[in-house]
Amino acid sequence: MFAKGLHWILQSHLHWQHLAHYLDDFIHMVPAPHQPTALAQINDGYNAITEHLGLLRNDTKDDSGYVVEILGIEIDSLAIAARLSPKKIAKATCLVTDALTLSKLTQLQAQKLTGFLSFCTAVVLLGRTFLRRL
Questions:
Q1: 74: Cβ contacts below 8 Å, ≥ 6 apart
Q2: pLDDT by residue (tens digit) across 72-131?
Q3: Where in the chain are the domains?
Q4: How big is the chain by its Cα radius of gyration, in Å?
Q5: d(Cα 35, Cα 65) in Å, to the nearest integer?
Q6: How far apart are alpha carbons 65 and 19 in whole angstroms?
Q7: Any alpha helices (H) in the chain, and if so which ranges?
């Protein structure tokens, strides 16, 4: 409910049209022709609102450009593609390699592995099809 309220505040006071949120992470998209001038205005307006409301910001998550990472998935607006970040690919490779070296998995280990691989299926073609067997 809080994120929905903040979403409304940002849209109504800053007139952000392309805004989405997932839990407490907000994604604001700005068309490329407006980007250079809009970024300063976006940061100023957003910072003013969060300071006025007394909200903490995690500025390390702020990113701009044609390729940005959102929730562990790289979004490429030039190629119109979504892919796993290199960190997520390395983690998936490590988890699968570790699972294959063991003679058996505990239920918890299997759940952790399938949970992470399920996250990966958001951008891996046919991933969900093969994951259903696990």
A1: 67, 68, 82, 83, 84, 85
A2: 889 888 888 899 989 999 999 999 999 999 989 899 998 999 899 988 888 887 777 777
A3: 2-64, 85-131
A4: 19
A5: 9
A6: 16
A7: 2-14, 35-53, 86-101, 107-120, 127-131
